[in-house]
């Protein structure tokens, strides 16, 4: 090579020129090293000038420099020809891989000749000669002493045949990329370096490794020829690991020399240029080469387990890509696995490499990455990816700023710097203080409901005992009857709350803090003042208590209270993006549809009202623009997700008044107090109606201001819509409870936005009005803590049946019990209890009148004194017991005592029961449940599609051979 460097090169500094020994301190005989360097270039015009400067700066230069151009279309060939002392450039096709290009260059030019005169160390030409091959990428740059330190370590450890440098990030960053590399038997590339880790000498130990990167790899000629170079089946990605693995099997050691520094740009890995040597996707190619490398080199006894491991990993990663709305990633996963396993190239490679099996696997298995490390890295990457994508999910499109920087400034709480850190944090986060109070208060308020048993009330049937029973109830119902949609949604919640009883506890007892947290997620989008936001969220949570939803056990209203703010946040995300090129958000539209589906299922009346408002608002405010179409799509999606329950609501409008968990709730009826109606406080609620008066008065004052905000008007619109819905629903006989809650929520929204506008005012009247609201809120919280959450809601056994009747329902008897209730002049009511009795969803899935007519006829005959045939008729209906809970009607009891075929059973606490003789009659129940699995399967598919669509898009991380920095493709 020429000795004169070009003028002006100043790429390296003192850090890149470490000083140290240049001779063998052990006093061994000197060795003459002859180095042949090979540079492979592909579309590398952006990096080759820096590589040329680095070659000029080398203290120890190679004896021969070979350049290979793989079909570049830019100035790569000319820049390669301008390198110092380079041989004529060898040209190959663009489809040529890195290893094949190196072999073609060596075939065309050959290794450097061995001089017979004075050697490079002043010897007489009779010293032992060792020939080396130095591999360089066109986007790397060796430090001035890189080759010298590689050769120094080769002198100190002559038994090592492959050496690799320490790789740093281009152009001269101290960020580490590699100091040796290994792999797990699952195919995961592992450098042992964290992303972004800086070089502080923590990895500067000369050691044996499994492999080193091909960027800067120094290979002894005999090792290269013994291994026949890189595998041509690996044009890129994993070729270096395969080469090092084969070298270890053949008895050659691989070492890393950290004093030798090479900077690497990773142009192909980061996507700065197209991949050479292949037309396949980068991710697919990397996975395929990972499988090939392991299958071609792993011990034969491990192959069955490795194939199973690959299959399981492919399934999990494919599911991740499907959930992340990147189906192409799942396709790449399966294409890589099936293409590699079925192609059979790895089987031929195993045959070709049998001659290399000189060292058993156990002798160097410590060089591999442990599976637990691979699992830890996968979990860390998954967690970081999820958090990153969630942050980007709702901010990936430009949007208008909801408030100006001046308004933003008033949300900054000024705290003296001499305050303790914890006190400063609490002052700056008032909602955190409020939410902790609500969470602790929820435990205190539930003090009377903690213990064994399940939560029950006149408006809440007992939950199912197991997830299997709940799923059966969600998929089975009498012929012609549709099981309620909310049972399937409640089953999904129960899977993460340790069963149906746990889900009931979470929703009812945790409704206040959960609703407050959901309200905070909505208010933070447009309320700047932190104190106002904290009050609004806390007041919204307490509104669940004042509405009586918790104390009465109204499961549907509690769920709606948690979902409503989330629905509002999603609608706000869709509607607010108006002054940008890209409008709306389809992720938010899908999430809006999911929230609407929950409302349709748990509180149909509230869901219908919200859907109508969204449709009218979308068409009136946005027309058929993108945002209007998105909101219309959300309503349609919500209706589709609860099919076929939607059809039942259309065919039977009376079911709109039903609420999940129990019978319809008429919070305010036609003859009830006007004060309860106007204040949104249900009759018999836990708080008096006059506590809501301050809130309504402040909301009225807020709407009269000239500077009122649009969100205040939205709050009042919600309150008026809830009032109108309450009037209609209460006059129709039920369903007004959730609608009254919407009324209160609207007033809270109006007051919160008004507080946000005038919260910093020093006017005495403003401070007095806000103080009045705070006092009312504190009084309500006192009611909550003192009265507690119990009332009509109580905790007890799941059934009121005697123990012997409950045990009779268990296998093998599986008794069917007819429970008859007759109280005074009230009409006779009955329920057919099987498999634990009536549970959640039984009312919505009750049989049709014609299906229950045989039982009704028998009871009518008994009410008239009986004919003597009722015992046989009950046996024919497959009824095992007739049970009359206390108080027992004496006339009906005497009639049953006189019937043939009925035997009086045990009685406790004033009740009575009779055993039906079924020995002579083959009974068949008139109410048989039919399982509709097809609807549930279609529902699961629809919900999965909806959930996936509102999630952020997953990214494919390509584990490339040049360190941990990976190319990510959306």
Structure description:
With 970 residues, the protein is of the alpha+beta class. It is built from 34 helices and 23 strands. The strands form six sheets. Strands 1, 2, 3, 4, 5, 6, 7, 10, 11 and 12 form a ten-stranded mixed beta sheet that branches. α7 crosses α10 and α27 runs antiparallel to α28. The longest helix is centred in the last third of the chain and has 24 residues.
Layout of secondary structure:
Blueprint: E1 32-41, H1 48-57, E2 64-70, H2 76-81, E3 90-92, H3 98-109, E4 129-137, E5 140-142, H4 146-156, E6 160-169, E7 176-178, E8 182-183, E9 189-190, E10 207-208, E11 218-220, H5 221-226, H6 239-249, E12 253-264, H7 282-297, H8 303-323, H9 327-343, H10 345-352, H11 371-393, H12 405-409, H13 421-428, H14 430-445, E13 454-456, H15 467-475, E14 476-478, H16 486-494, H17 500-509, H18 511-523, H19 530-546, H20 555-575, H21 586-602, H22 604-621, H23 626-641, H24 645-651, H25 674-679, H26 693-703, H27 710-732, H28 736-758, H29 764-787, E15 794-796, H30 803-808, E16 817-821, E17 829-833, H31 849-863, H32 870-876, E18 881-884, H33 890-898, E19 902-904, E20 912-916, E21 929-931, H34 933-949, E22 956-958, E23 967-969
Parallel strand pairs: 1-2, 1-4, 2-3, 6-12, 16-18
Antiparallel strand pairs: 4-11, 5-12, 6-7, 6-11, 8-9, 10-12, 13-15, 14-21, 16-17, 18-20, 19-20, 22-23
Helix pairs in contact: 6-7, 7-9, 7-10, 8-9, 14-18, 14-19, 14-29, 15-16, 16-17, 18-19, 18-20, 19-28, 19-29, 20-21, 21-22, 21-23, 21-34, 22-23, 26-28, 27-28
């Amino acid at each position: 090579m020429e000795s004169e460097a070009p003028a002006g090169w100043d790429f390296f500094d003192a850090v890149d020129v470490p000083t140290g020994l240049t001779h063998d301190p052990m006093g061994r005989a000197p060795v003459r090293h002859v180095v042949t360097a090979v540079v492979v270039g592909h579309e590398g015009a952006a990096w080759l000038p820096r590589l040329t400067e680095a070659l000029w700066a080398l203290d120890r230069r190679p004896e021969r420099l070979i350049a290979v151009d793989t079909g570049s279309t830019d100035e790569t060939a000319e820049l390669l020809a301008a390198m110092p002392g380079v041989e004529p450039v060898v040209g190959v096709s663009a489809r040529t891989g890195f290893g094949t290009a190196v072999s073609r260059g060596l075939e065309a030019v050959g290794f450097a000749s061995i001089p017979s005169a004075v050697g490079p160390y002043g010897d007489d030409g009779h010293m032992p000669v060792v020939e080396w091959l130095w591999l360089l990428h066109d986007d790397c740059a060796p430090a001035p002493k890189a080759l010298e330190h590689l050769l120094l370590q080769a002198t100190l450890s002559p038994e090592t045949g492959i050496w690799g440098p320490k790789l740093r990030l281009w152009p001269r960053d101290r960020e580490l990329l590699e100091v040796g590399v290994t792999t797990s038997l699952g195919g995961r590339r592992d450098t042992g370096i964290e992303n972004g880790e800086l070089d502080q000498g923590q990895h500067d130990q000369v050691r044996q490794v499994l492999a080193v990167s091909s960027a800067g790899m120094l290979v002894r000629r005999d090792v290269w020829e013994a291994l026949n170079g890189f595998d041509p089946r690996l044009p890129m990605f994993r070729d270096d690991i395969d080469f090092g693995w084969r070298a270890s099997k053949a008895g050659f050691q691989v070492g890393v020399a950290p004093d030798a520094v090479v900077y690497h740009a990773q142009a192909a890995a980061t996507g700065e240029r197209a991949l050479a040597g292949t037309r396949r996707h980068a991710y697919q190619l990397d996975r395929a080469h990972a499988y090939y490398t392991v299958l071609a080199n792993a011990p034969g006894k491990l192959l069955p387990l490795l194939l199973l491991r690959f299959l399981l990993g492919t399934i999990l990663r494919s599911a991740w890509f499907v959930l992340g709305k990147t189906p192409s990633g799942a396709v790449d996963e399966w294409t890589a696995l099936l293409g590699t396993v079925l192609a059979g190239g790895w089987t031929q490679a195993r045959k070709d490499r049998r001659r290399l099996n000189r060292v058993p696997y156990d002798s160097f298995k410590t060089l591999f990455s442990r599976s637990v490390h691979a699992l830890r890295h996968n979990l860390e990457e998954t967690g970081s990816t999820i958090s990153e994508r969630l942050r980007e999910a709702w901010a990936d499109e430009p949007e208008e700023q909801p408030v100006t920087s001046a308004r933003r400034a008033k949300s900054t709480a000024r705290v003296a710097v001499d305050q303790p850190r914890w006190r400063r944090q609490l002052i700056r986060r008032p909602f955190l203080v409020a939410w902790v109070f609500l969470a602790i208060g929820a435990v205190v308020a539930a003090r009377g409901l903690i213990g064994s048993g399940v939560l029950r009330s006149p408006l809440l049937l007992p939950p199912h005992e197991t997830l299997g029973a709940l799923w059966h109830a969600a998929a089975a119902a009498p012929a012609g009857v549709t099981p309620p949609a909310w049972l399937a949604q409640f089953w999904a919640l129960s899977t993460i709350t340790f069963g149906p009883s746990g889900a009931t506890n979470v929703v009812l007892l945790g409704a206040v803090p959960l609703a407050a947290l959901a309200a905070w997620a909505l208010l933070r989008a447009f309320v700047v003042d932190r104190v106002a936001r904290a009050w609004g969220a806390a007041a919204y949570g307490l509104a669940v208590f004042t509405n009586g939803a918790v104390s009465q056990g109204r499961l549907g209203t509690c769920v709606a209270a948690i979902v409503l703010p989330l629905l509002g946040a999603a609608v706000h995300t869709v509607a607010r993006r108006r002054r940008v090129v890209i409008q709306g958000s389809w992720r938010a539209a899908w999430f809006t549809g999911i929230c609407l589906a929950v409302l349709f299922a748990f509180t149909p009346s509230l869901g219908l009202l919200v859907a109508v408002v969204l449709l009218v608002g979308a068409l009136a405010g946005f027309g058929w623009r993108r945002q209007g179409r998105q909101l219309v799509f959300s309503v349609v999606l919500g209706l589709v997700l609860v099919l076929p329950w939607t059809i039942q609501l259309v065919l039977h409008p009376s079911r709109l008044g039903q609420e999940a968990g129990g019978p319809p709730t008429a919070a305010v009826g036609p003859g009830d107090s006007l004060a309860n109606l106007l204040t949104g406080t249900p009759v018999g609620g836990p708080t008096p109606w006059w506590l809501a008066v301050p809130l309504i008065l402040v909301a009225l004052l807020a709407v009269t201001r000239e500077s009122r905000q649009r969100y205040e008007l939205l709050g009042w619109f919600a309150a008026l819509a809830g009032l109108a819905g309450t009037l209609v629903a209460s006059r129709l006989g039920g369903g007004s409870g959730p609608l009254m809650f919407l009324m209160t929520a609207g007033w809270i929204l109006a007051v919160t936005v008004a507080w946000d506008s005038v919260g910093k005012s020093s006017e005495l009247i403003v401070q007095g009005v806000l103080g009045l609201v705070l006092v009312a809120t504190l009084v309500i919280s006192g009611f909550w803590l003192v009265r507690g959450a119990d009332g009509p809601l109580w905790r007890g056994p799941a059934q009121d049946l005697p123990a012997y009747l409950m045990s009779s329902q268990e296998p093998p008897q599986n008794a069917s019990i007819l429970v008859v209730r007759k109280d005074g002049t009230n009409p006779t009511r009955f329920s057919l209890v099987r498999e634990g009795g009536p549970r959640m969803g039984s009312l919505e899935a009750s049989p049709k009148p014609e299906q229950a007519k045989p039982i009704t006829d028998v009871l009518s005959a008994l009410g008239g004194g009986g004919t003597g045939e009722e015992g046989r008729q009950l046996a024919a209906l497959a009824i095992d017991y007739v049970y009359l809970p206390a108080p027992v009607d004496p006339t009906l009891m005497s009639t049953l005592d006189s019937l043939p075929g009925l035997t009086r059973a045990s009685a406790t606490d004033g009740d009575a029961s009779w055993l039906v003789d079924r020995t002579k009659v083959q009974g068949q129940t008139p109410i048989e449940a039919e399982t509709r699995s097809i609807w549930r399967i279609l529902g699961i598919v629809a919900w999965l599609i909806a959930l996936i669509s509102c999630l952020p898009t997953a990214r494919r991380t390509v584990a490339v051979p040049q360190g941990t920095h990976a190319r990510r493709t959306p």
